[in-house]
Description:
0% strand
Amino acid sequence: xxxxxxxxxxxxxxxxxxxxxxxxxxxxxxxxxxxxxxxxxxxxxxxxxxxxxxxxxxxxxxxxxxxxxxxxxxxxxxxxxxxxxxxxxxxxxxxxxxxxxxxxxxxxxxxxxxxxxxxxxxxxxxx
Length: 127
């Protein structure tokens, strides 16, 4: 899916700018989201079967492996500075020990990164 999203965003941006990129990404992601959303209503009904419960436990292991792989790839691609380590540690502590909402932590980390990137760009222009 990431390759499809990247291609859609690039094509949408070239054709219609930022709005084209947004709607192209939405067009690639929305069908999968809708299918998963509909399936989630049936999940509770079929999860009570023993074999289905075992299947979902196995799927969890695969999902964990995919999340760890994505995390390792992001860590390798990220610039290592003090802000990186502080943000990572703060996010982990907030979620693991204080039960913070993961989505809120991701939004806060993204906002902090955006502010720092804009500040660095502004500083580079002055020099």
